[in-house]
Amino acid sequence: MLTRRKVLRVGATAAALAAAPAGLVVGSRSGTARAAESPFTTPLKVPAPLRPVRLAGHDFYRLTTREADVTLLPGTTTRIRSFNGAMSPLIVARRGRPVVIEQVNRLSVPFSMHLHGGHTPQRSDGHPMNQVKPGESRLFRYPNEQRAATLWLHDHSHEDHAENIYRGLAATYLLTDDFEEQLPLPKGRYDVTLQLRDAKFQGDGRLDWDLHGFDERHTILVNGRPRPYFEVAARKYRLRLVNTANERPFLLQLGDGEEFTHIATDGGLLPEPVPTRVLQLWPGERQEIVVDFSRHGVGRKLVLSNTYPYEGESGEVMRFDVVREASDPSRVPGKLRPVPDLGTSAVEREFTMSFDAKTGQHLINGRPFDMHRVDIRPRLGVAETWKIVNGDGEYGIPHSMHPHLDAFKVLDRNGKPPAPGEAGLKDTVTVPAGEYARIQVRFTEHTGLYMYHCHMLSHVQMGMMGQMEITR
Ligand SMILES: [Cu+2]
Asked: Rounded to the nearest whole angstrom, what is the distance from the C-alpha of residue 323 to the centroid of ligand 1?
């Protein structure tokens, strides 16, 4: 159960994050490392892309959702829920070439696959009513007619998605295109996806699950490995950070506050690179950075840390060990990708996100999710401005907004322009307690029923989701 004490604890984290100005170094909060898990003893696993069956006009994959026994913590076995038996698999797709996935559900619970950030027809968007029951299978078709971006696949079944994602069902879906490939950014083995999340383990390696236990998940996993180390060359790397945790925000810092370059967010490349020393990564979000390890030299070890860990844990996330020289033809251009003009908004809407202490539910505009109710009816091609109000100043709970189907622009936060790192297309925006943000969104091409919701997963499960019908 979500207690008031627990609510206030997450509030403290959220307030600290809100207070940290972008681009400034924030000092590490002291925390006690848990002796049982020494960090940096396990190498990072860099997943190889899954191999599709190439068919005329599209790439075909079969993803079986099933339980699997894997080693996450050294010397122990963990039963996970997986795609094809592995944690953090990777799919690489190309703009203009559709991907078709046959999802075969061998779990004992329903599953509804959603491509987060995907511009996807309704029948393949993972609406909770389209769930795949145990023993059944279903085809999902992703047209990939959108700009290059780092997306991710996860469950969207209403009752079990938080637990399914927690137990391992999260895949990265990397979409490339010609525009991005002609830029001289780091490529190939120097373009690395890092899925960040947390978990709570029992001593024997079993995962401990509690919907409301977010601040007891003290083990940080990167691509399924606990606080790993990664041997890198003294050159530039592109790092694609994906937060697949149910609720944990990361406020990331490299080494003693080294500078790196923020190049992309949820919807792909920023208009221009942003040099920074700190990076916020909220649940569901993606942030991409370029780190130049040649500045540090062979022999340096740089810890990536979360500067606002929960009480009783250390902030270490992973360590980069610079182990060899390498040539480096890559560079970060001064301009990356212009953000499209969405036109003038013809519709304004307001969404107040709030926790109801009497019922324990999380509400949007005073109501919990109802699959049989359509909350809003946006028109195809008409730009809208949404004001997202966090009504939980009293409890200190952060909330986010993630509309399906199309990415949006952040117009302002509390009336002020967004930070340069939020100047690109986003699909998930977090609003700290008591604050508001305005976004502009325009739904295009596909009609039908889609969801919009907070991406703190216990909040969604406790009602913080709405349904929109996009009409012509
Ligand atoms: Cu929320």
From this structure: 42
